[in-house]
Each structure stands twice: as structure tokens, then as C-alpha cells.
């Protein structure tokens, strides 16, 4: 597997993009604003979108993607998500008011887009690549994703906060090589992090005590105005784990 980071920030502007990652050439993990930097040729190759949750910074470019390439595709774009997330997409985005319902365009027999439900712990296998939804704890129903090539694995938390079931799964992945985990706020905004069910360094440092695997750790969802401060606060508490800041266009091969 080859995973390319298209966006990993908590906002936009100045070259920052919200969460999106391209797995090989045909799978998106979330579809934030970074998807907009792909060429038309690259967009046409995307067959699947795996969505962690329904918040706009993770789904913003699904409507533009299907609108751009739908009429040029022979098969529908498949969006994989929890039933609650799919319901939110249908009710609030693809509702003929905000955007057309592409599950019915040009018709229900051969639509431009198809929605498929995920469940935590149940793997989807695509050409030998295993994608498994991971437990998550956010303000809306959400998942992370475990990407397993057979040789090695990468785990992505999505948006989350303290959650023992996540670590119970992670610690059982024998071939885990990479962990991408969020910290959306610095410690100065710990109260906001708690209310919005995100991590800040103080919360994240406590969570890392549950990690029993030797993995490379990358921090995502950093807010531009406090990213450096947030990373300093994380490093001060877990310098032995050597966490690194996830970067735009960073590539993982596993």
C-alpha cells in the first residue's frame, strides 16, 4: 500500500488543507479540502471513499468529486461510512437543496454514487488490501481506519478523544508500523478539546500510556496558529516515543 497525505490540518489557508489521504490511486480516506489539488486524471481513478465521520472538514469534497467525475465513470463512486454518517450525507448534503442526490442521477439503476454501510471491526477487502473500521469517540458517530497490506499496517484514528476500545484493537495488530493520531488543540484550549471530543497534548500523553506497540507516530489535525506549540507540548510528555508532525504530501509505503 501507498498512502499519500492530501490534507492534515485543522483548517485552511496558507497551503493548509483539511483531512484527506489517497490510498494507492483508487481509494480516499476522508475527503477534505486537499482532494481539490488532485488532477482530473487522478480524480477519475478514485473508486472508493472511506469516511471517518460526517463533519464538513472530512467530507467537503465528496460532492465536488462525484459532480466532476460521475458522468465520466463506468461504475459508481462508492462511499463507505457508518450508517449514521451515510444518513447525514443524504439528509444534509445530497438532498437536492445543498447538492443533487447523485445516488439517483442519472437514475437509480446506474447512479454516479453508491453508499455502502460500514461497521466497526468488519473489514472491507479490495484487491488484497484490508480496510477495517476502528473504534472512535467523537461528538458524532465516527471510526478510525486500520489499513493492512498483509506485510504491514497503518492505523488512523480519525477525530477522537480518550477511548480504551481503540487501544485494545491497536495493541493486537502484530504488523503495525505507523499510527496517525490527532491533536486538534493545544493545552491552552483543553476545555474546548474536552467539549468537542478532540485530543490536546495533556489528554494524548495519558492515552499513549496505553500503547503497547513500537510504532512510528504522526500527529494530525493540528491548527495552524498553534501547531508548533502543540507539538512542543506533546514532545515534552512523550519524547521517548518520538512523535512527528504529519505533513502535507507525506507518503507512507507499507
Automatic annotation (TrEMBL):
Annotated signal sequence range: none
Domain Metallo-beta-lactamase span(s) in chain numbering: 17-203
Gene3D superfamilies membership: Ribonuclease Z/Hydroxyacylglutathione hydrolase-like
Pfam families xref list: Lactamase_B_2
Identification of the protein by name: cAMP phosphodiesterases class-II:Metallo-beta-lactamase superfamily
SMART domains on file: Lactamase_B
A single GO BP: cAMP catabolic process
One term of GO molecular function: 3',5'-cyclic-AMP phosphodiesterase activity
Amino acid at each position: 500500500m501507498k498512502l499519500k497525505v492530501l490534507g492534515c490540518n485543522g483548517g485552511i489557508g496558507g497551503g493548509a488543507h483539511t483531512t484527506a489521504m489517497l490510498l494507492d490511486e483508487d481509494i480516499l480516506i476522508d475527503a477534505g479540502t486537499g482532494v481539490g489539488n488532485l488532477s482530473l486524471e487522478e480524480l477519475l481513478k478514485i473508486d472508493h471513499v472511506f469516511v471517518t465521520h460526517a463533519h464538513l472538514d472530512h467530507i467537503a469534497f465528496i460532492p465536488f468529486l462525484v459532480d466532476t467525475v460521475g458522468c465520466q465513470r463506468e461504475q459508481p463512486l462508492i462511499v463507505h461510512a457508518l450508517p449514521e454518517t451515510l444518513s447525514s450525507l443524504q439528509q444534509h448534503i445530497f438532498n437536492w437543496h445543498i447538492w443533487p442526490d447523485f445516488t439517483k442521477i442519472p437514475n437509480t439503476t446506474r447512479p454516479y454514487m453508491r453508499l455502502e454501510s460500514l461497521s466497526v471491526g468488519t473489514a472491507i477487502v479490495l484487491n488484497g488490501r484490508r480496510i477495517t473500521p476502528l473504534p472512535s469517540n467523537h461528538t458524532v458517530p465516527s471510526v478510525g481506519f486500520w489499513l493492512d497490506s498483509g506485510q504491514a499496517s497503518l492505523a488512523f484514528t480519525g477525530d477522537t478523544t480518550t477511548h480504551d476500545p481503540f487501544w485494545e484493537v491497536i495493541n493486537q495488530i502484530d504488523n503495525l508500523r505507523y499510527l496517525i493520531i490527532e491533536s486538534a488543540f493545544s493545552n491552552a484550549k483543553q476545555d474546548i478539546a474536552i467539549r468537542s471530543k478532540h485530543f490536546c497534548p495533556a489528554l494524548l500523553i495519558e492515552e499513549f500510556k496505553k500503547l503497547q506497540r513500537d510504532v512510528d507516530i504522526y500527529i494530525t489535525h493540528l491548527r495552524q496558529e498553534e501547531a508548533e506549540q502543540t507539538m512542543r507540548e506533546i514532545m515534552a510528555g512523550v519524547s521517548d516515543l518520538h512523535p512527528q508532525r504529519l505533513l502535507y504530501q507525506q507518503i507512507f509505503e507499507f
